[in-house]
Amino acid sequence: MNFCSQCGHPVAHQIPPGDDRQRYMCNHCGAIHYQNPRIIAGTLPVWQQQILLCRRAIAPRQGYWTLPAGFMENGETTRQAAARETWEEALARVEVGELYTITSIPHINQVQMLYLAELPHPEYAAGPESTEVRLFSEEEIPWDELAFLTISNALKLYFEDRRNGVFPTRHIDLNH
Amino acid sequence: MNFCSQCGHPVAHQIPPGDDRQRYMCNHCGAIHYQNPRIIAGTLPVWQQQILLCRRAIAPRQGYWTLPAGFMENGETTRQAAARETWEEALARVEVGELYTITSIPHINQVQMLYLAELPHPEYAAGPESTEVRLFSEEEIPWDELAFLTISNALKLYFEDRRNGVFPTRHIDLNH
Q1: Strands (E), A48-109
Q2: What is the ipTM for the molecules in this complex?
Q3: CATH number 2.20.70.10 is the correct assignment for the domain at B1-35
Q4: Which residues of A touch B4 (CB under 8 A)?
Q5: B81-121 residue pLDDT tens
Q6: Whole-prediction pTM value?
Q7: CA-nearest residue of chain B to A105?
Q8: Of A41, A149, B127, B154, which has the most beta carbons under 10 Å away?
């Protein structure tokens, strides 16, 4: 951030009065520009014991497999964000269930939330950010080609929990 | 948003190529300025069956009672944010437990997360954003003077759940 988005003057990086951390501040109009973590929402879509994964068409981790997920937008709920991302990346309409994993990743200022989801019919296709979308049984999961640690964590937990038939919400903090 | 925070030129509100919603875009340097929901993190601090509430010194809802909570900052986990806000508003050091309520509030672009917390000692005081901090038994809760619906929801659920001794994570969507 170099300029004030409100008035266009250069900003300074300094601690505002009464605050205790540096913010981008405009000494011309007085605006303080807070920056906060962003939410990634997605699903773990299941059809007849199989999991829907997407092969990424874009960076980061292009070519690797992921669960459908992406940045939550203004004006939606976390569940709506998870369903929208599943549609955009896998052209799949899911029934979003319970929150399954919530992962804080402080070094990249993200909180990722993955929901369990039912894929009522095996209908899906690659959206613009995927090159390939397919169902995997547990034995077929491409563990060495998963895009992110949050994805492999969620899948490992899911297969463990499936043996017990209970899927509690898992709270994970990923530190560097 | 009127100006590009990267190069200082005026921004336009338009749909970027390949996108499907309006963003603030700079036609000079090409920057796209995404805006996303923010996370509010806080705690429901308990000491010997009593709940710690803060009377708000600031708008919105000045003078009303709330659980300690505030905007999650970059570089922290949701639990760290909840503990820090509890310190800042109630000068109380808590042991943060399980996620209790997660509430999407799409019309104000927020996701609020409240954690169950143990107050090991009855030590607390008003921080700069509170005029008063005190412990309330269930019978003493000032239901008509609570600041936000998310707070009254969490407290109602808590007292119900306490009768059963189980505190599952509650997922709430607040629509206008």
Answers
A1: 50-56, 65-66, 69-71, 95-105
A2: 0.94
A3: yes
A4: 3, 5
A5: 999 999 999 999 999 999 999 999 999 999 999 999 999 99
A6: 0.95
A7: B77
A8: A41
